[in-house]
Amino acid sequence: MWAVALRTLGDPDEAADAVQDAFVSAYRKAESFRGEAAVTTWLHRIVVNACLDRMRRKSVRPVADDELIEAAERDTPVPDQTTEREVSMEVSSALKLLPADQRAALVLVDMMGYSVEDAAHVLQVPSGTVKSRCARGRAKLVPILSHLRNRSDLSRVSSAKGAELRDG
Predict the structure, then answer these.
(1) How does pLDDT run across 20-46, given as a tens digit for each residue?
(2) CATH of the domain at 22
(3) 39 CB neighbour count, 10 Å cutoff
(4) How far apart are the C-alpha atoms of 143 and 166, rounded to whole Å?
């Protein structure tokens, strides 16, 4: 739950608050769990909703594409660090620039390893919607993260992240 919240929100404090909100909500709504899906799927959905609620409350205006590129350049870590952590930080920073629906789909599918169908169930949208959100999100990430394509240390990042960035 923590990983989903952290990757979705990109801020440990916000993620902690979202997870706390999610578990309070799950406790209050425990009797509404119908058993149609796994408990973890139900809990992930509650966490994603808590994250989306927090992002909606913070969003003031939409971000233009040129602002995405400027923000990515501003948030790029020190270039002489070539560790796996640097790549992870760059990907996390880039994810923050995506719309909430695209970010949630990419986190579930590309970072958490959910199948498109499972992610669709968690997000309560059709599979095609998850596919299109992932495709749009990847397309926005390409110009921001294109410098990572040929890095030798990219292979050490989780296979899901690396594969999606290379194929993206």
Answers:
(1) 999 998 888 888 887 777 888 888 888
(2) 1.10.1740.10
(3) 11
(4) 12
